[in-house]
Amino acid sequence: MSLAAALGIFFVILGCALPMFNNWYPLFVIIFYVLAPLPTIISRRFSENSAFSSDTAASLCNELALFFTAGFALSAYALPLVMAHAPRASPVIKWGAFGCVSAGNTVCFAAMIFYFLFFDRADDSLGF
Question: How far is CA 66 from CA 11, 47, 122, in A?
Fold first, then answer.
């Protein structure tokens, strides 16, 4: 998992640091890497430890957390896309940098998904 996350961040830094791109604005997507898992972590903590929580409230909390997590993940892809499009005359980043950052996003979010699927369980069965 950590190798995948490091590889994803490597792609993001590669999209910033290569001499043909030479623009560090795509590095702002790291903010979304920090923000994306927070709603899911908070909702799992709320649904497990709340004394007055019912199944309906826990389900609503989980669905809302998944909505915000999806919004943060979508924003991580949308920010470089907007930077590559605007302004039309001279975009903020080049399309090659957008490709590297999108590849990094995919690898980092895949590592987060695999972590939540396999290692963040209440029991130690690893989901099998």
Answer: 26, 14, 19
